[in-house]
Specification:
- This protein is mostly beta strands and 92 residues long.
- It has one domain.
- The protein has strands at 5-8, 11-16, 26-34, 41-44, 47-58, 61-63, 66-68, 71-79.
- The radius of gyration is 14 Å and the shape is globular.
- The N and C termini lie far apart (34 Å).
- 15% of the residues are buried.
- The model is unreliable at 88-92 (pLDDT under 50).
Length: 92
């Protein structure tokens, strides 16, 4: 798996335009090439994320890197705490 792949379960659902550092509470991807069912929860570089907002969704983007799509731009995600990821929030 590469540093740019975004997964949900065992499926690649997106590819980021570059490798992003995941630290703090949020991460913002400049651009994600959507490959599958994108959101609301997924994993990037081993960290669980929750999709908060997509600024722009483009069906087909043509620029200096050639045609591709669909592309999500300005993708804001919250880093989910380990205690909240995949659980119901109940404490033992």
């Amino acid at each position: 798996m590469s540093d740019t792949e975004i997964t949900a379960g065992d499926q690649v659902v997106g590819v980021a335009d570059r490798a992003y550092e995941v630290s703090g509470r949020y991460v913002v991807f400049d651009e994600v090439l959507v490959k599958g069912s994108f959101g609301p929860d997924f994993t990037y570089r081993g960290k669980p994320l929750r999709l908060i907002h997509v600024h722009t969704m483009i069906g087909l983007l043509v620029d200096h890197r050639g045609p591709r799509g669909p592309v999500a731009k300005g993708v804001l995600c919250e880093v989910i705490e380990a205690s909240k990821a995949g659980g119901n929030g109940a404490k033992a």
